[in-house]
């Protein structure tokens, strides 16, 4: 069986069969003939090596395998919608109804979905998105150059109005072959301060949060092992065994699930942090900016 992914339109067809209970009605919804839809479904079943739909004169019903594939397909298509919405926002440069900026972690895992929801309800809204670190997002918001920003910094700078839109947790991660992966006791802040770590660039919310925790414990960090300006680069460096790093749990969840990195427990400190939407103080959010903030709050990340 080929390892190439199934056609996305075929996955959409499967979901419509599940929703409508009829291959013919699913074909009509997609604007194709029933024979064409049947051919598409056959292609999907061959691609996956599974029987997905039982078809008879009374209609079409998903098999147990088909129901499982349908659930996974829904997640795939949701992620695709988020990707397309995020890419469209990144392309926006001139005519924009809503200018956004976001820190890296929020831009990678949350903001595109919020934009996708906004554009499904308000397709006329044009959005642009700048991805940078929390310090730069705050500066853009203070200057009034964006309508709304999203940051993960431990504090919100003066001159900004803000609203918490979620929370996440920082974790220490190492490669499976690192000595810390086999230790039976947690590390503490003093040990982390003495260890040369892979860190983000100055201005990153992740780095600022961690350094404030060290400072609050009276610990001064040694010189970093590496300074990288992207979460993806940090993940790759950790997985390759370069050294430990402190990253958002959501950033490395797939690496953890795949066994490419290992979480190291940390003693004596709460590594949870708040995620905030920010905008210029004294400015009332209206229109698309207010709608996007409501979407972010409703998502409850």
TrEMBL record:
A molecular function GO annotation: transcription cis-regulatory region binding
Keyword tRNA-binding part of the UniProt annotation: no
Alphabetized UniProt keyword annotations: DNA-binding, Transcription, Transcription regulation
HTH lysR-type domain mapped to chain residues: 6-63
InterPro entries tied to this protein: LysR_HTH_N, LysR_subst-bd, WH-like_DNA-bd_sf, WH_DNA-bd_sf
Superkingdom of origin: Bacteria
PANTHER family: HTH-TYPE TRANSCRIPTIONAL REGULATOR (PTHR30126), HTH-TYPE TRANSCRIPTIONAL REGULATOR CYSL (PTHR30126:SF39)
Entry similarity comment: Belongs to the LysR transcriptional regulatory family.
Protein's name according to its UniProt entry: LysR family transcriptional regulator
Source organism of the structure: Actinospica acidithermotolerans
Upper taxonomic lineage: Bacteria, Bacillati, Actinomycetota, Actinomycetes, Catenulisporales
């Amino acid at each position: 069986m080929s390892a190439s992914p199934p056609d996305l339109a075929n996955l959409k067809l499967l979901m419509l069969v599940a929703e409508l209970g009829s291959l013919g009605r699913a074909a009509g919804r997609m604007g194709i003939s029933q024979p064409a839809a049947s051919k598409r479904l056959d292609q999907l079943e061959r691609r996956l090596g599974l029987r997905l739909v039982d078809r008879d004169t009374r209609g079409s019903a998903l098999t147990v395998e088909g129901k499982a594939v349908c659930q996974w397909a829904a997640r795939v298509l949701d992620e695709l919608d988020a990707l397309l919405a995020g890419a469209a926002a990144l392309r926006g440069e001139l005519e924009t109804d809503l200018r956004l900026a976001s820190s890296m972690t929020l831009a990678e895992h949350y903001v595109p979905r919020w934009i996708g929801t906004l554009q499904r309800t308000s397709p006329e809204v044009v959005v642009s998105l700048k991805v940078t670190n929390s310090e730069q997002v705050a500066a853009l918001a203070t200057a009034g150059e964006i309508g709304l920003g999203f940051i993960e910094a431990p504090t919100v700078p003066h001159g900004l109005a803000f609203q918490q839109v979620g929370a996440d947790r920082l974790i220490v991660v190492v490669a499976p072959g690192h000595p810390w992966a086999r230790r039976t006791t947690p590390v503490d802040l003093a040990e982390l301060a003495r260890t040369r770590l892979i860190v983000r660039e100055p201005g990153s919310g992740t780095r600022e949060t961690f350094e404030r925790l060290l400072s609050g414990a009276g610990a001064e960090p040694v010189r970093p092992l590496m300074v990288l300006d992207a979460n993806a680069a940090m993940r790759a460096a950790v997985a390759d065994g370069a050294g430990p790093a402190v990253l958002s749990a959501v950033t490395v969840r797939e690496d953890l699930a795949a066994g490419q990195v290992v979480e190291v427990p940390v003693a004596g400190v709460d590594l949870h942090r708040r995620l905030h939407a920010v905008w210029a103080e004294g400015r009332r959010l209206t229109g698309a900016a207010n709608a996007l903030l409501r979407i972010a709050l409703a998502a409850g990340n």
